[in-house]
Amino acid sequence: MLVDTARHSMSSALTGSYDHRLVALSVVIAICASYAALDLAGRVTAAQGFARTAWLMGGATAMGLGIWSMHYIGMLAFDLPVPVEYDWPTVVFSLLAAILASSVALFVVSRQKMGGWRAAAGSFPMGIGIALMHYSGMEAMRLTAMCHYDARLVSLSVVLAIVISFVALCLAFLAREEKHGITARKVASAVVMGAAIPVMHYTGMAAASFMPTSTRPDLSHSVSITALGTAGIAMVTMVVLGLAILTSLFDRRYSAQTLELESAEQRYRLLFERSLAGIIRTTLDGPILDCNQACARILGYASREELMASPIADHYFDPEDRNTFIAKLKKEKSLSNYERCLRRKDGSPVWILASAHLVEDKHGVPAVNEETFIDITERKKAEETFRKAFDANPEPMTISSIAEGRYIDVNEAFLRVTGYAREEVISHTSDELKFWDKPEARAALVNTLRAEGSVRNLEITYRTKAGEQRIALDSSEIIEVGGQKCMISILRDMTEQKSLEKQLRQAQKMEAVGQLTGGIAHDFNNMLGVIIGYSEVVTERLSGNEPLQKKCEQITKAAQSAATLTRQLLAFSRQQMLEPKYLDLNSIVRNMERMLRRLIGEDITFSTALGPTLGSIKADQGQIEQVIINLVVNARDAMPSGGKVRIETSAVELNGDYSKKHLPQLPGSYVLLTVSDTGVGMDADTQARIFEPFFTTKEVGKGTGLGLSTVYGVVRQSDGFIWVYSEPGHGTTFKIYLPRTGQAAQVMTSNSRMARSVRGSETILLVEDEEALRELTRSLLADQGYRVLEASRPERAIEIAGKFDGTIHLLLTDMVMPGMNGRALAEALAPIRPEMKVVFMSGYTGFNHSALTDEKLILLSKPFTRDNLLTKIQEVLGSIAKLETVQ
C-alpha cells in the first residue's frame, strides 16, 4: 500500500459503498466492548495480586477485541467492485497489537492516584493502538488494486483517536471514587470510547483510495472477508456478551459487597468519630496515623489534626515509659485495662485506662499500635483524696467488718465526738467499746444492709467514751477491704437538732393554745364592755346613799377583773391591742425600781445592772412594765426564805450560729433584758410548760397561771424572744431579746383634766356589729353631747356617709366585722370624707402584727370604760395628749 500525498486522478479509482446496517452494528459492538473493557479495568485499582492482573487482562482483551471486531465488521460493510481477501497472519498481528496497546493504556490509568496527566499518558497508547490496528488491518487486504492514502486524513484519524480516548478515560477514571452518578459516567465513557474507534476507522477509510491494477495479489495465506467478518462477529459477540454477563454477575456481588463494606466502614467511622473513648493509631516509632476527636479532647487539643501533628512520644513525661510500653506490647501482642499517665497539651497530667493491640504488616513485622482509652483522671484524684476526705470529713466516719463490727479505720471526727484515742478503737469491736446504746440496734442495721445493700439516715443512739448518749443518722454502704466484706458508715450527729425540734414543737403548741385563748377572749371583751359601761351609768345615776350603788360598784369591779383576765389571755395569744412607742428600757427600769423594791419585800435583795447606750425598742410601755412586774413577782414567789433578784440590760448582736441553736430566734441587734433569781429553780418538765396558760406550780388559790403566759405573749407580739435557764436548787434566769431600733425614745404625758367634763358637739359615725355594745356606745356619746350616726355593718356606714349632708368629724369603728374590717371601711370612706378622723375599737386583732402597729392608726382597746372612750375621743378631736421626745 502507498501513502500518496498528491491528489490522484479520481476517474480511475475504484468506488465502494457501505452497508449501513453493518456500520451501525460496528458502532454498537465498539460501544459494548468499551463498556465491558472500562468497567473491568475500573476494578484493577482496588484489586491485588492475581486478581489485579486478571481484571487488567480482561479489560485489555475486551477493548482489543472490540477494536479488532469493529474494524473487520466495518470492512465487511464496505463493498468494492473487486474481490477482497485478507492475509490472516497480518489479521492476527492486528488483533494482538490492539490488545497490547489497550493493556498498556489501561495499566497507566488504573493506578491508585489518577490525574489528568495519567489520562493523557493512557490516551496516547490507546489512540495509537486503535490506529495501528486499523492500518495493519488495511495492510492485510488482498485485492487487485493499489491503496493510496491522504496523509492529512491519516494524521487526523490518529489525532481523533487519541483525543477521544483521553475524554473517555477521564470520564471513566478521574472521578471513580465519587459514588454518585457512577452508572451515568460508565455509560458516557463507553459511548465516547466506542465513538473513538469507528471515528478513527471511518476517517482512515476516507483517507484511502483504491486504484485498479493488473498484478495478482499473493493469496497463499488469505481468507475471504465474508468468512473473516462472520468469524469476527461471532467471536466478538461471544466475548463481549460473556464479559458483559461476567461483569453483570460480578457487579451484583461486587455492589453488594461494596455496599456492605461501605456500610461497615461508615459504621466503624461513626463509631470511631463519635466514641466517647479516645481511639488512636500510631506507628511503633511514634507518629500518629489516625485518632478521633475524643482522643484529642482527652489530651487537651481542639482538633484531631492538631494532635496528629505531634508524635505520641511528646505526651510521655518520661520517654523511657514509652519504650517500656512498646516492649511489653511486642511481647504480649495485646494489653487490656492498664493505667498510665500522659501529658496534656498544656503540660498537665491525664490518667487513662487503656487497651492496646499490636497490628503486624503483611510480612508479620510489628507495625502499628491501635489503642482505646478513657480518661480516669478524676477517679485517680478521687482515690488520692479519699484518705484526706475520710479524715477531714466533719461527720464521724467508720470502716468496720460486717460480721463482728471490728473497726478497721475511723476518722478524726469520730474520735473527737466519742472521745476515744485511735489505738483504743482500731481492731476493737463496737461491743467491746459499748458503742451501741442497744446491741440489737446494730443487728437490725446489719440485716437491713444485707437485704437492701445500703442504709440511709437510720436514726441510732450511741454512747461516747464518757457514757453520754447521742443521736445520729447512720448511712452505710457495703464495701470490700482485703477480700473481707465491710461497711463504711457516716454518722450525722443529730443531738442538737433533736433538741431544737423539741423547742420548735413546744413553740407550735404555745401558738395553738394562744389561738384558742385569743378567740375566747374576743367574745368576752364585747360582753364585758356592755357590763362595764352600763354598770358605770347606773352607778353614776344612783345617789351616794342608795344601797344599790355599792352593788353596782361590785359589778364594775368584777367586770374589770374579768377584763384584766381577758387582757392576759390576749397578751399570751399575742392578739391584744398595743400602742407601741420607741422606748428607753433603762428609763422604764429606773422608774419602776422603787415600786419593785416594795413589791418583793425586805428579805429579798434587789439590784440592777443597766448597760450604757442600749438604743431604743419599739413596744407598748405598759405591757413592758407588766412583763417586768410579772417576772419579779415570779422570782419573789420562788424564794419564800429570801434571796436575790437582779435585773440587767445590755445591747447584744446575735449571729447565725446562736439563731440555729435557738429557733425561732433571728440574728440581728437586740436589747437584752435579764431577770434572775436565786430561788428553788425548775426541772426540765416544768420548764417545758411554764408559758402555758393556767399552768402553775403554786398552791391552789395563790396563782392564776397567767403571769408567765402573759410575759410570753407580750414579748412575742413585740417581735421579741424569751428563753429560760434553770436547774432545781440553782435559781432561774429569764432572758428577753427585744429588737433594737435606731429611733429616739419617747414617753407619754397627758393632761389631767377629766374628759367627761368637756362636752362635745361633733358628729360621730359609729360602726359596731355587736348590737348591745353599739347601743351602749351610742348612749355614752349622746349623753356627752355628740351627734351619733350609727351603723351595724360597714356597707350601711358607707351608705349613711354618702347621704349625710353635714360634716362627719369622726369615724368610730370596730376593727373586726363580717365582710369588711374597720381599716378597709376607713379607706373606702376616705375619698368622700377626707376631713374625717378615725378611731378603731378592738380587743382582738385578727390581723397581722404590722397592720395594727401602724403608728397612723388610733386604737381604743376593748373592753373600755366611759372615761376611756371619752378621753380617746377628746384626744383625737381636741388634742388633749401630746408626745414628748426623750433626749
Describe the secondary structure blueprint for this structure.
Blueprint (H helix, E strand, L loop, with lengths): L1 E2 L13 E2 L1 H22 L7 H29 E2 L5 E3 H22 L6 H24 L1 E2 L2 E5 L1 H23 L8 H26 E5 L9 E3 H50 L3 E6 L4 E4 L1 H6 L5 H5 L10 H14 L1 E10 L5 E12 L5 E10 L1 H16 L4 E5 L5 E4 L1 H7 L3 H4 L4 H4 L5 H14 L1 E10 L5 E13 L2 E10 L1 H47 L5 H27 L7 E3 L1 H16 L3 E7 L5 E4 L1 H17 L5 E12 L1 H6 L6 E10 L6 H4 L19 H11 L3 E6 L5 E10 L4 E4 L13 E5 L3 H13 L3 E5 L2 H10 L6 E5 L7 H8 L7 E6 L6 H4 L6 E3 L4 H13 L3 E4 L2
Parallel strand pairs: 1-6, 20-22, 27-28, 27-29, 29-30, 30-31
Antiparallel strand pairs: 2-3, 4-5, 4-8, 6-7, 9-10, 9-13, 11-12, 12-13, 14-15, 14-18, 16-17, 17-18, 19-21, 21-25, 22-23, 23-25, 24-25, 26-32
What do these coordinates show?
The protein has 27 helices and 32 strands. By secondary structure, it is an alpha+beta fold. The strands form 8 sheets. Strands 19, 20, 21, 22, 23, 24 and 25 form a 7-stranded mixed sheet that branches. β12 and β13 form a beta hairpin. The protein starts with a strand and ends with a strand.
